[in-house]
Hints:
This protein is an alpha/beta fold. It folds into 4 domains: 7-182, P-loop containing nucleotide triphosphate hydrolases (Rossmann fold, 3-Layer(aba) Sandwich), CATH 3.40.50.300; 188-246 and 336-370, no CATH class; 250-327, Arc Repressor Mutant, subunit A (Orthogonal Bundle); 376-487, Trna Endonuclease, Chain: A, domain 1 (3-Layer(aba) Sandwich), CATH 3.40.1350.10. It has helices spanning 7-18, 35-42, 65-80, 95-109, 122-125, 132-142, 159-167, 188-197, 204-214, 218-221, 230-239, 248-256, 260-270, 279-286, 291-302, 325-334, 350-354, 358-374, 376-383, 435-452, 484-487; strands at residues 23-28, 52-58, 114-120, 150-156, 179-182, 277-278, 306-309, 319-322, 390-396, 406-413, 418-425, 457-464, 480-482. The strands form 3 sheets. Strands 2-3-4-1-5 form a 5-stranded parallel β-sheet, sandwiched between helices. The chain has a 5-stranded mixed β-sheet with strand order 9-10-11-12-13. A 3-stranded antiparallel β-sheet has the order 6-8-7. Strand 10 and strand 11 form a beta hairpin. Helix 9 (204-214) packs across helix 16.
Amino acid sequence: MEIIGRLIEQQQLEKIFQSKEAEFVAVYGRRRVGKTYLIREFFNNNNKKKKCLFFRSSGIHKGSLKKQLEKFKQEIEVTFYRGRKGTQLSAFSNWHDAFEALKDAIELVAGNQRVVLFLDEIPWMATPKSGLLEALDYYWNRYWSADKRIKLIICGSAASWMIESILNNKGGLHNRITLRLLLEPFTLAEVKAYLEYKNVSYNNQQILMAYMCLGGIPFYLKFFEKGLSVIQNINHICFNKKGALFDEFHLLFSSLFKNHEIHEALIRFIAKKREGVSRREIESHFHYKGGRLTSRLKELEEAGFIIQFAPWKKERGVYYKVVDEYTLFYLTWIAGRSTHSLAKNMDDHYWEVMSAKPAWKAWSGFAFEAICFKHLNQIKKALCIPDGSDVFPWRYLPGQDGEMGAQIDLVFDRPDDMVNLCEIKHTVSDFVVDKKYAAHMRNREKIYLSVTKTKKQIMRSMILSASLKKNIYSAGFIASVVTLHDFFSK
Length: 490
């Protein structure tokens, strides 16, 4: 099957594959983002360009050590001993036995060909007190790191576990990773290419709507059917009780986090405020603080559900906001469906009705902002932002009565003595800057200059899901514009 997008990742994997040294690759990213698919298809044994022995064993969610080892044994038998009559390995007692058997199989069968060892969902394999990491440490350092045939790839959706246990390992695996591959969701352009590959063709506005609901997650997008509109597909996938994503939220969190109820509660709270929630508010609401809270927020951030940012006001602490599109969509529209009066009698057309209401129009602006943070490279290119620029949302909280606050959707603080203050607006038709809105932008700019004391030149920019209508207020007032077309550029 064809790999859609992922051009940079494919180039990196090709370099690893062609290397004349042993390689140790760590692949991580949000669950359902396509990590397994990328590795499996890139090294597919049917791919004549990739002549190698490909071994894959995947962890079992909440599986016991015994079940993990049994699965690993079966994969060794299928990969290395298929066709060899009477070959059956003895049960493994521990991971040292398992890797010893894998080492022996490689020596018996591989010859001079490259060997790709793919340990998928390794956090699930590493059951408590299993000794997996210690065994992996031993066999990598003792045998495989000196074997130029070996390309070891470990993969996990629990990003925080991958970072702490593998990338930041303080033991024998310290600094052993030769490539860390963070697989991110598809961009808008990749979503369009993927759906076209499935013979599902939409214009850019329709693709944007699909992205607002599901984000760039290939597993979610594969359920789209040709002949149906985006709204009809979303209705069928997300709101029908038999839909593929009807209960995805709970399955997703339970598969990623050990104490997923707490993570779910945290993200529900953070998602309530469009502008973000402060660490202080979170501590006050949940009545706990310290390292455990920090760890859980970090886990949500590393898994791609939230981002962390700091407001301008000079106070300690940071803010968090949800940027995962499906999570925002679920918490706003799917989670409350069972209590909505329309839900009881409109199973087949529920979302067709709800998506036409004013509430969707208001919410879509929130979703579009999250999408912008996933497409900063495209925005920077369209605005000609130089490398080395700092990028952040900006918010000033007034410290005394009578003082005005302000929030700027996106700021590019550039090294060439310029600052782009960006307004993000979602509309279907062309956006119009009128006298009132121009005054609103000037006021925000005035507060930004007063608070930051910057001497840099201010440039007013707009990031739009449509286009900017030219009139007397926009001409000469708006310096640069990003439109939806720019989001689809490569």
